[in-house]
Every structure is written in C-alpha cells, then in structure tokens.
Amino acid sequence: MADKVIHAAGGIVVRGGARLRVAVVQRSKDDRWVLPRGKLKRNEDPVAGAEREALEETGHRVMVREFVGAMTYRAQGCSKVVQFWRMQAALHPSHDLMKDIIAVEWLPLAKAVRRLSYPLEKLFLRNVGQQSLKPRRRKAARKRSVAKAAKSAAKSAKRRATKRRSTRRV
What we know:
α2 packs antiparallel against α3 (119-133). The chain folds into 2 domains: 5-133, Nucleoside Triphosphate Pyrophosphohydrolase, CATH 3.90.79; 137-170. Strands 1, 2, 3, 4, 5, 6 and 7 form a 7-stranded mixed beta sheet that branches. The chain contains 4 helices and 7 strands, in the order ββββαβββααα. It has helices spanning 46-58, 109-115, 119-133, 139-169; strands at 5-15, 21-27, 33-34, 37-39, 62-75, 78-89, 101-107. β2 and β3 (33-34) form a beta hairpin. The chain is α+β, with helices and mostly antiparallel strands.
C-alpha cells in the first residue's frame, strides 16, 4: 500500500550585507528551532508555498533564488518531503509573525546550525549553507551579458569590415 506523502517547502533565508545571517525560527508547539518551512496548501506551487512560509515565519518579505535541496523524513506516520530554496530577506520586517512562531533569530551560519533542534536539519544546513550564502549571478543576467558581448563583437566585426572596404577604395 502506498504511503501518503506530505509536501512542504521552505527556505534558507538570509539577510545582511558583508556578514550574512541565516533565519532560524522557534515553534510554539514544541519550542524547537527549525528553518522556516511548512506544509503546502492544496494545489500550491512549491516556490509560492516556500515564499509564503518564509514571510509568515520570519515576518520579512523575501526574494526566492535558486533551489538548494530537499529533505525527506517520517512525520505523523507519513513520509514528508520538504523542498528548500535560497531566499534573500528584506532588511526590515513587514509582517507580524504567525501565531505558531515564538521567535526568529538571525545568526551566522555556524551558530544557526548549532541552534537547530533536529539532527537532519543541522546536517542539511551544514551541507547547503555555505553554498546558500554565496551571492550568485542570476541566469537572466548571465544571458544578458552574453548577449551584450555577442552584440559588441558583431559591432566590432562590422566596423572592421567597413574599415577594410573604405581602405580598398583609396
């Protein structure tokens, strides 16, 4: 018999300038410290669900970046799959925390790993954390820069061709 699967999404939510901090949240139901995450609503897109959960649990609007990984574990007798994205939080909170969250702490990566309550989540953050803190160039920006370089090369080639034609006429 197939096991029921619970789908959830969340984020490695970071903020700050030169010294980036990672958000960890404390749940009210058991006082445990976890990464911002939660169950998806029916037919909810995982990226939208991750963004919603991050806002509800940290109080900060976020920009969702790239997918960083997933965890699977047993919860309430079912398999639970949690997908995570790297997210950049706004500097200041814009919403109150949901009632299920007691506190949010913004910690350096090593302290965030130590603060987490679940060993699997500690291992996950330790493995994807460094990668999540590195600023990344977005694919669209990369495509624009490649297109810009190609356009520039085409202009240079056209100038050289025009210059060759004009020197032949003399």
